[in-house]
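Morning run. Coffee first, then this:
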Amino acid sequence: MNVKPLKGAHDNRPDIVNQTIHSNSLALESAQNLQLGSITTHVKEDPIFELLQQFRQDSRSNKIDLGIGVYRDHINQSPVFSAVKQAEQWRVDTEEDKTYIGPLGDLPFCQAITRLALGENLAENLAHRLAYAQTPGGVGALRLAFELLSENNSDRTLWLSDTTWQVHLPIANAAGLVLQRYNYYDPVQGPLGFEALLDSLYSAKAGDAILLQASCHNPTGLDLSNDEWHRLAQYCAQKELLPIIDMAYHGLGKSLEADRQGLRIMASELPELLLCYTCSKNFGLYRDRTGMVMAITADAERCAMVSKQWMQLATRHYFTPPAHGASLVRKILNNNELRKLWETELETISARLRDVRHNIFNTLSEAVPDKDWRFLIDGRGMFALFPLSAKEILQLREEYGIYIVNNGRVNLSGFNTLNFSRAMQAMANVLNKQ
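And here it is:
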């Protein structure tokens, strides 16, 4: 195709060449003043991954990792679910293409997760008000949820608990939200109580959002009771607060049914909420980045608008999520045999975590009676905050090769039949010296 110059147009190609050469020399001169990686501000290392690097560099054969938040079994392995293996074989046998799945991702996967999280009846009743998108893990879901808040009202404040997963804060900061803290847990006093939580939200404004964890609270392991969930739902309705439910450990606490009660209460009693769901822990799909963000909207019209917003936000960041993990979860949840197998495997994990909690409680209550260890049997899931000072945590690391996050968060699945006695003795030695 021949393209003719516009009538009367000036041939300015020499000028453009000269401008390009001039701009290149300016860019080269500028690059000498500022280069990639030359920032003067200190880049902070993520404390958990920094701890992981220290652990990997430790040459001691009896070292113990209680830091990184990945489930380990009784022989210190992070197993692949048998249900996942079978679903992967199905995918290998049946997959016909590798094309994009679109910004909203695998919608049948989202529907299956919605039914799992809300229950069949509630999911069906709310179907016309649900807008969802598959995301790259729970972090992707949180980022889209936080950006949706910012897109709809840039002055909105997000309230986070004073003790929460350390990655919540940078994700919320990156979304440009105004942040405040509500009372949940104190390193010295422990749980601050539900009344303290409500009192700390007194200054929250209508339209503000509150980030909550559905179950197996990270890092404390201490959850709200069903009665407290009901009271909090009433409080949110009264003050017009938007709950964001982070559901990262569904099924690792008491059961799939018990662990979703807080979400179900909120979804039944409030006109709007956001859900961020990840399959990393309860399906073991850590590296496959399998998650979902969902909005319960006030009506069908707003539901359609939020779906468009999810699509725009996804396109802005990653365009389309990975297909592999979502297809496995969809297959497992929609196949009776695979679902039963998965539920059995998940219950084995949650039962082991409950046993570990009781074993540590019994052992340390006798070995270190001056400390109150009841938080272990009151809590659920993989994590607990141990009453350890920074000095004690460092001593455990240097003298015994036991790696714990600096705030005292312990991954309970890191205890196993091979290291339990040694770890308990080390903690008793360190704590009884103080």
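The longest helix spans residues 336-367. Good start to the day.
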